[in-house]
Design goal:
The protein has two domains: 183 residues, Class I glutamine amidotransferase (GATase) domain (Rossmann fold, 3-Layer(aba) Sandwich), CATH 3.40.50; 105 residues, Arc Repressor Mutant, subunit A, CATH 1.10.10.60. The strands form three sheets. It has a seven-stranded mixed sheet, sandwiched between helices. The longest helix is centred in the C-terminal third of the chain and has 19 residues. Helices cover 44% and strands 13% of the residues. A hairpin with a 2-residue loop joins strand 10 and strand 11. With 323 residues, the chain is α/β, with parallel strands linked by helices. The chain is built from 13 helices and eleven strands.
Amino acid sequence: MCPVIVALVLLPGFDLLSLIAACEPFRLANRHAGEERFRLWHLSADGGPVMSCQAMSTQVDAAISTALDADLTLVFGASEPCEPVPSVIPAQLRRLWRTGRSVGAVQSGIFALAQAGVLSGNRFAAQQDQLALLRVHWPQLSHVDQLFCIHNRILTCVGGFAAADLSLRIIQDHVGATAAQSVMLACHMATMRDEATPQYSLQTTTRNLHLRRALRWIDRNFAREDCLSSLPEAAGTSSRHLQRLFRAHLGLRPFQYLLDLRLDRARLMLSETELRVTDVAEACGFGTTGTFSKYFRQRFGVTPSRYSPVGVKHGRRAGPAVP
């Protein structure tokens, strides 16, 4: 039996934890089978070593251009996009997917798939913070609130230990449930989370149904002008009861929770895109640029026009992570 070839493409600043979590189940699957069932290739854009977000340099086997024979090509990024995706990576992903191969992404690797044009019309999983950036450039895309997703030969994962769950699913699909169960136990995992498992957030950790509905509504509709006024109906309870729930469980009023969320999304957009301040203010639900600037300065100590992820730099922002 020929081994399944899995190409792991590392972006600059990739998350080492996600990579290790993804790799170890395949190693254990080979050991359990007593033969090579999965062959891993570590690749980069140019074949050179790649620095992780944990500041550890990782050697690779080759450049992504050699991945033509890979059965699955997964792009590993960070929790936040750090640098522009090298153009050779989306081009190769597009070529592989169009020739019937499977492609995928972990964490900010999702931007490589978006640039490749393969996400349109397909479901995918992505971290909530990354969705705000994705919607700026590709507003037509539709995501699912899951740890990982497999749809139409596209595999996506939010990263962290969820990468191990994705690998276990791949093992199950190729060599069976018994092998996947054995690998899961060898990884000291209590259970194998399936594709329908939602991402962890305040929505999934609180037991109060009304509060979960309210948080989900805000997270999905934070840019809407009527986000707060429509909140009681979305949550299925009164405005006064929501005020009590937010204070009891979060120590915040609904307005403050929404404001913090909008400011976090705006900060990310300023760091990772070339959008004007006025466009960021509009995309994040602020009525005016003046209102946005006031709240932003109160929160981060600097105006939006002078914000940089590494501090104030002569009134200019850092370069974009996506074109």
